[in-house]
Amino acid sequence: MQVFGVKLPAMSSLLLWGLLWEIVGQMGLTFFVPPLSQVFATLFEIIGTPPFLKALWETGYAFFMGVFFAIVIGIPVGILMGKSRFLDELLLPWVNIFVSAPLTALVPVLMVLFGFGLTSIIITTTLFAIWIIILNARAGVRQINRSLVDMARSFGASPLDAFTKIYFWAALPEILGGVRIGVIRAVKGVIIGQLLISIVGFGALFELYASNFLMGHFWAVLIILFALAFSISEFLGYLERKVAYYAAKR
Amino acid sequence: MHRSLLLKLLSAALVFGAWEIAGRIPISYAFPTFLESMTALARMTFDGTLLQAYAETLKPLVLGVAISALIGIGFGLWIGLSARSEWFFSPIFIVMQAAPLAALIPLLVMAYGIGLTSKVFVVCIMAMPVIVLNTASAVRNTPASLKEMGQSFLANNHQILLKIVIPAASPVIFSGLRLGVSAGFIGAILAELKITPTGVGDIISYSRSIADYPSMYAAIFSIILLAVVFLNLLEKLEDFLFEGNNRGYVSD
Amino acid sequence: MAMSQIDTPFADASMAAPESAVSVRGVSKNYGAVEALKNMSLEFPKGQLTSLLGPSGCGKTTLLKIIAGLIPADSGTIEVGGKAITGPGDDRAFVFQDFALLPWANVLRNVAFGLELRGVAKSEREAIAETYIANVGLAGFEKAFPHELSGGMRQRVGLARALSVDSQVLLLDEPFSAVDEQTRRKFQEDLLSLVENENKTFIFVTHSIEEAVYVSDQIAILLPRPSRVSEIIRPSSFRNKGVENIRRDPEYLDIVDEIWASLRNYVE
C-alpha cells in the first residue's frame, strides 16, 4: 500500500496490530490479553532462564532431527519415484494419503510404541514434513526438460554426472519449495507432538504457565515461537526465490 | 489402467502384509496385527460405537470448517480486492499460516473451557489462514487480460467482480477450502486428544488406557480413512466443477 | 449501433482524404522514466483497415490500448466518431492477443458476453451471438468450452465476441500471433472479406511485415526510442486483384522490402 506516495513495507502493519494489542491490554478488557509492553518485559525476563533454554533446546533438537530425517529420506525417495514408474505407482497412493491425512491421530500410536520422549516427537516432526518433500522432489524430477537430459547424454555424461550436474539442479526449485513447506509443517508437528506428549519442551512450559495463569509468560513464549517459525519460513522462501529465476526458463 | 489398479492392490497388500507380520512377531506389545485391528474396526462399526463417536467428532469439525469457510472467503475477497486491507490484514494471516497455532490451545481452554466452543475455535484457527490466503491470491491473480476484456466491453466494477473475478478465482478458492478441511481434521482430532476426550479421541484415549490396542489402532485407522476419503471426494468434486477452468487461458 | 453515415459510398471512395473514424492527437504516455509514446498523432480512415507495425518496444500495443480506453494517456486526445473518449466505449470492440475467453463459459456465452454486460436479454443476445458464431465459421461449436478448441478457433470466438456488439471500430491486438501459420493465412483472407463487408474501421497491431502489407489499406510504421510514427504507407494497386494474387503482386513485394529496409536497423 502507498501512503502519500511512499510505499509501506509489506509487514509494517504488524506494528499497528502491536499498538492495538497494547491499547486493548492497557484497557484491561480481559485477563487473557496483558499489554504488549508487559509481555515483552516478561519475554526479556525469561529468555535467558534455564527452563526456557531447556525447552528451546529440546524443541530445537527434535525439530532439526525431524527435519533432517525428512530431508535425507524424502528427497532421494522423491527422486527415485520420479525416475522409476514402478516405484512411483507403488508408493504414490500412500504418499498422497499421508500428505493430507490428519497425522495428529498417529501421535498416540507413537506414544505407546516409542514412549513419552524425544523419539516420539522427532518421528512426529518427520511424519509432518516428509510427504510434501517427497511429492515435490518427485514433481521436480518429472518436469525436467527431456532435451536437457538428451543434451547431457549426447555429450557423453555418465549417469552420476547426469544426476549431480543435471537432475539435481533442474529439480532444485521444486525440491526447495517442498523443503520450505515441509519445514513449516515440521514446526507445527513439533509443537503438536509436544502438546500431546506434554512433559518435554514448550509443551511442558505451556502446561506450567497455563496451570499458574501466567498470561505474560504464555504470550512471551508464543511470540518467540511464532517469530522463529516465521523467520524460518521467510528464510527458506528467500532461498527458493534465489533459484526461482531459472525455474520458469527450463 | 489395469496395471495401475494391480499395482495399487499390490502396494496395499505389501503394506498391510508388513503390518500383519510385524504384529505377529510382535515388534512391540503395543502393536496388534492388521487382522486384529480390522476385526476391532468391524466390531465397533457394527455395534454402533463408531457411529456415535463420529457424530460427536464431526460436530466441531463441521461447525469450524463452515465458520472458517464463510469468514475466510469473505476476508480473502476483501484482502484480494483492496490494497489497504491487504496491507492491514494479510500479515496476520501470513504469520498464522507459518506459525504453530496449536500452541494457542491451552489459552483457548482457559478462555472458553473444555466444551464445544474451544474445539470449534481449534478447528477454525487451523483451517482459516489457508482459506483466506488462497482466496486472496486467487482474486489478486485474476488474469489481467480477462479484466481488460471486461472493461473494454464496458463492464462495471460490480459485473467484473461477479462475472469475471469470482468465477476465475473459484478453483483456487475451492482448493483452499480443501486444504482448510484437511487442516480442520488435524485440529478436530488434536482438540479431542488434548482438550477433552470425546468421540473418536475418546475411543483412542480410553482403549489406550485399558491397553485394548486393536481398538485404538482401529479408531485411528478409521479417522485417517474418513479424512482421506472425504478429501478425495472433494477433489473429485473440484475436478467435476471446474473441469477445464485452469486450461484455456493460455494459447496453444 | 449508429449506422448514420453510409449514404454515399461511391462519392466517398473517390475523395483523396477519406473521413477519419479515429483521430489520435498529440498523445504521450510515460511509464516512470520510460517514454512509451511521445506526442503521437495519427488518423484512421473510416471503413478501412490500418495496421500499426513496428519492432517490439515501439509502443504499438500501448497506443491500441489507449485508443481502447484501457490505459489513460498522459496528454493528448483520442477522438472516435468526432467525440473525445474518456474510457472504454460501445463504439469500440477489442480482440485480445491471448483471446481473453472465459474458461468456465461455453462458446455461446463467451460470444454473447459483451452483450450480456450491456444487459441485453438472454434470448436476444444468444440469437445475435449465434449469427456471428456462424459468420466466423464455428457453427456447431456453440456448446464447446475454450479448452476444447484449437488456438485458431479460440481466436474466432474472440472475433465473434467483438463483432457481436456491433461497434464501429474494431481494435485487434496481434490477434493471430498465437495461431499457427496456415490458420493465420486463412484468418488474413477472412479479415479482408470482413473489412469489405462489415463497413467497420479496423485498427490492427502486428509485428509481421507480410501480414501488415497483406491486410492493410494503410500501414503506420512506428519506431521506438522515442516512439513515433515514422511513415505511413498506402498500398494502392493490389487490393482489388483478389486474395490469391496479392502475394505475387510486384507492389506487395516492393512494399515488404521497403518496410524491412527501414526497420532492420531497429532490430537487435
Describe this structure as you would to a colleague.
The complex is a heterotrimer of chains A (250), B (252) and C (268). Chain A is an all-alpha fold. Chain A has ten helices and two strands. Chain A has helices spanning 13-27, 36-46, 50-83, 85-100, 107-114, 118-142, 146-154, 159-196, 201-211, 215-247; strands at residues 2-3, 6-7. In chain A, strands 1-2 form a two-stranded antiparallel ribbon. In chain A, a hairpin with a 2-residue loop joins strand 1 (2-3) and strand 2. In chain A, helix 2 (36-46) packs across helix 10, helix 8 (159-196) runs parallel beside helix 9 (201-211) and helix 8 (159-196) runs antiparallel to helix 10 (215-247). The two termini of chain A are 34 Å apart. With 252 residues, chain B is mostly helical. Chain B is globular and about 70 Å long. Residues 247-252 of chain B have low confidence and may be disordered. By secondary structure, chain C is an alpha/beta fold. Chain C has helices at residues 9-14, 60-68, 107-117, 122-135, 151-164, 181-198, 209-215, 250-263; strands at residues 20-31, 34-45, 49-53, 75-80, 83-84, 92-95, 169-173, 201-206, 218-223, 228-233. Chain C has a six-stranded mixed beta sheet, sandwiched between helices. In chain C, strands 2-1-4-5 form a four-stranded antiparallel beta sheet, covered by helices on one side. In chain C, helix 6 (181-198) links the parallel strand 7 (169-173) and strand 8 (201-206). The chains are: A mainly alpha (250), B mainly alpha (252), C alpha/beta (268). The interface between A and B is large, with 55 and 57 residues.
Question: What would CATH call the class of chain A?
Answer: Mainly Alpha
Helix content of chain C: 25-40%
Order of helices and strands of chain A: EEHHHHHHHHHH
Question: What best-fitting shape of chain A do the alpha-carbon axes yield?
Answer: globular
CATH H-level name of the largest domain in chain C... which superfamily? P-loop containing nucleotide triphosphate hydrolases
Strand content of chain C: 15-25%
Which stretches of chain C are low in confidence, meaning pLDDT under 50 for 5 or more residues running? 1-16
Query: How are the strands of the largest sheet of chain A arranged?
Result: 1-2
